[in-house]
């Protein structure tokens, strides 16, 4: 809580559950002033989970197919397009929900000024700003919360993945003001806040926020990105762009990436391809420069086959 600068945390078991809770808080909070203030804007290409509300929040239609009717009150804007967001916001906007750094959609960082602009629009229309940091949070960006990197504070932040170092957990942290809209019984879950997961999260919270730990993420991340940029120089016909920050990095290819992922796996490293053609690198935060060298040389070995 101290790290987030927010007021109250609720613990659940997964990322989707954290986002589901954040959506409920935003709706309940807005409902107090206007029962029709319910619209939640999210980004195309986002990923927020696979429950019915969070897959609706997810701005990728292939996740929606076959699950209709989907809940009302969600609409989508292009990430990094402030003018489009402004055109869709009004007094009925309940919340804007964004990944601080888009992961699943292809590793997109916020353009300079974008998140500040989103914050201002949320303030103007009394809408809550929800940052989904399930992938980008817990030190991955080089800051404990990725939003610290961009100097913009949300009203609600959601966490999961790294929060308990692999033990299942999810959490949303909200302002006291928004939390006050939730009454006893409005939200809950059997295993939420269980001692095992919270003990594991305490170890993460004792470790990851430390300056030297985050400095390592920042420096090994810069090293990794520089290596990927070198690969791009070597294979300009295959690597279109290298993106990301800290240890959430992506290399956009000119071809589908699945076979490259399999070739690298056969050499002994797990990488991943998202959005069809973006090699995504979200390694353990303790990765060393030597291990980065190993992975990059595996990729270097397999790429000539695709030229
Ligand atoms: C940004 C983001 N939000 C939400 C989720 C959903 O988390 P979970 O799979 O724990 O439900 C994910 C999972 O990949 C994610 O990356």
Description:
It is globular and about 60 Å long. It has 307 residues and is an alpha/beta fold. Helix 5 links the parallel strand 5 and strand 6 (156-159). The longest helix has 24 residues, at 211-234. The chain has two domains: 8-207, Aspartate Aminotransferase, domain 2; 211-306, Aspartate Aminotransferase, domain 1. The strands form two sheets. It has a seven-stranded mixed beta sheet, sandwiched between helices. Strands 8-9-11-10 form a four-stranded antiparallel beta sheet, covered by helices on one side. It contains ten helices and eleven strands. The structure holds pyridoxal-5'-phosphate.
The number of domains is: 2
Structural class category: alpha/beta
What ligands does this structure carry? pyridoxal-5'-phosphate
Strand order of the largest sheet: 1-7-6-5-4-2-3
| Average pLDDT | 97
Report the portion of residues in β strands: 15-25%
Major sheet summary line: 7 strands, mixed
Helix tally equals: 10
Radius of gyration: 20 Å
Distance between the termini: 49 Å
How many strands in all? 11
Question: Which terms would index this structure?
Answer:
307 residues; alpha/beta; 2 domains; 7-stranded mixed sheet; binds pyridoxal-5'-phosphate
Write the layout of secondary structure elements.
Elements: E1 8-12, H1 15-33, E2 39-43, H2 52-57, E3 74-77, H3 82-88, E4 93-99, H4 114-124, E5 128-132, H5 146-150, E6 156-159, E7 170-174, H6 176-179, H7 195-207, H8 211-234, E8 239-245, E9 248-253, H9 258-267, E10 272-274, E11 278-281, H10 289-302
Parallel strand pairs: 2-3, 2-4, 4-5, 5-6
Antiparallel strand pairs: 1-7, 6-7, 8-9, 9-11, 10-11
